[in-house]
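Reopening closed ticket. The problem is back. First fold of the pair:
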Amino acid sequence: MDVADAFAESDLLPISALQHLAFCERQCALIHIEGIWEENRLTAEGRLLHEKVHEEEGEVRGDVRTARAVRLRSLRLGIAGMADVVEFHRAMPDASPDQVCRLPGVEGGWTVFPVEHKRGKPKPDECDEIQLCAQAVCLEEMLGARIARGALYYGRPRRRHDVELDAGLRCRMEECVARLRALLQAGRTPPAAYAPRCENCSLVERCMPDIAAKAGAVAQYTDRLIADALKGAM
């Protein structure tokens, strides 16, 4: 990484905002531009889940060392945050050298496997994968080792969903970072647009996407009436 291209610590954006942006740009702006936040059952359950995971101590089981609440940053991308869980697996003899890192005070080489915890079930979009990928890229920069895979642990099915951190996902994640920075620099909240996902959003009462949708429909109807009237007058 060229030092001249690195972001300053004061310019680092929260990794969590990438998940908000991938879910809904308006939600992201309400939270990170207007400073609006409301909690509902879903967000409260998610917060408690993360707190529980972060409070647990790291552990060593055989050839796997587990760290929790790991602080992250990437000066190249200009993002920072926290990983729920980072597993370090003892590197196998055939492991690719660029995937192996060294841990202070620990013998041998280790491969890195981030795990992000989510309260619900897998989503139809990539917002969780984008967040996990950003965490992995931060770890790569911090540890100097490439990370090929990670996992999302969902509380409802109580199992992991493995994620390949391939070139396509990395590209979409970096595009999301660029969109986030542009959104925050512009300082403008996008207009509301109703979608089925709005029903699970804790900000739905503040966003009022259904009213915006009705207002848009009324405006279109009024425009049609005016256009018809003008045609009749010709």
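Second fold of the pair, where the issue appears:
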Amino acid sequence: MKYLNALQAIDTLKALQLLGITAYPNGTYAKFSCLECWEDYANIKLFGEKKNVYYCNKCKGAGNILTLTLKVKMLLDYNEAIEFLGRTMTSQKPITEELNLNYELEWNEKLDKAGYTKEICNKFGIGFPKGKTMLSGCIVYTVYNEQGTKIAYYGYRLKDYKPVFLKSFNPELYLYNYHNIDMTKPVYVTNAVKHWLMIFRDVNQNVVALFDLPYLSGRQLKLLREIPEITFFGYEEEINPLIAQADKFLENYILIFKKK
């Protein structure tokens, strides 16, 4: 397994537990006693960009879950460390209970200019939240699990299009719009929710999107395996990392690149 793919595939909390390291999750990070200085906590990224990379503010020690494994299990080499951690997959359970939070999302001219009709926004729960919330200034998408239960809100800040979401939401566990797709027809897959609309307008509802992760988690691969025919669609530099995984773990998929 390639180095980057190995980092992305490893379940952080499960790996730390396997190493005998006590971790304290907090949002997108978890903290643990730094093995370099033992005087402060190091923070390790749980998912997203730089997943499984850690850093200590006290001693400036840094590394990732693989280098950490080599420190704890000193007799292992790199390949043995990957094999040791290979038993770990995403262990957090998907949310099944409906979100106890209700944003009132409104449609406006900004959405209209971006191609989001009022009908689409009302149907899929897309819009700008009214009032002051952590997603103020964001285009917000309502997220549902495979059963159609509302579990989260996912937003993009207009000023830089960076994703914003609640700490209880793990983007590795879901595919946007999965609950709406027709399994008897080809399903399009794109890497970001913000790209979802440009495909949706052409193929109606049979589009699912990743939540801006540069990889497919074990659970996302499991969901995609249930689809008979998949088409990956997106910009080449963003889609290529996904295709590397698809080549190994998926069948019956095709690829379409979109030019910028």
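Update: turned out to be a display glitch only; the data is intact. The chain has a mean pLDDT of 85. The first strand starts at residue 24 and ends at 26. Please close again.
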